[in-house]
Amino acid sequence: xxxxxxxxxxxxxxxxxxxxxxxxxxxxxxxxxxxxxxxxxxxxxxxxxxxxxxxxxxxxxxxxxxxxxxxxxxxxxxxxxxxxxxxxxxxxxxxxxxxxxxxxxxxxxxxxxxxxxxxxxxxxxxxxxxxxxxxxxxxxxxxxxxxxxxxxxxxxxxxxxxxxxxxxxxxxxxxxxxxx
Length: 180
Prior knowledge:
This protein is of the alpha+beta class. It has helices spanning 11-23, 25-29, 57-70, 162-170, and strands at residues 3-7, 74-83, 89-92, 99-106, 113-115, 118-120, 126-131, 136-138, 147-156, 176-178. The protein has one domain (3-139, 155-178): Jelly Rolls, CATH 2.60.120. Strand 5 and strand 6 (118-120) form a beta hairpin.
């Protein structure tokens, strides 16, 4: 199990992004249907195919930091999760040939995220990243305070066939290309 972490965001940046996610939740939900059934009904998570937070003011903060971690020449999918009391996300993986990650923004850090059933304590502003085939989940939130995080999938353009890359980039609201 190869999991890496890095301090990505300051407390102020984490607060800003968490508040932005809360303030725009209904607008983001209006961008498409909830396509993910592994969490609460009508979830923000389920809009991962119709909205990418890198196209918002959050991107102004996140893009330079993602470049620092992964370099340029990456195609990034970035979505948000809000897990209110009793909500979590079932065990899942993100597919093959990518790096996946999450950025913990707000909530009880001790509730943790589970990777291959091993609990990792969250830290505000920390990026945890791993191979996209690693199974992970978040148990239902027992707290009144919502748990807010962002998730990312990173594909390296050198690892993609040109036809696949073009199909991804044609989905203009889903993928953000950080060029060389």
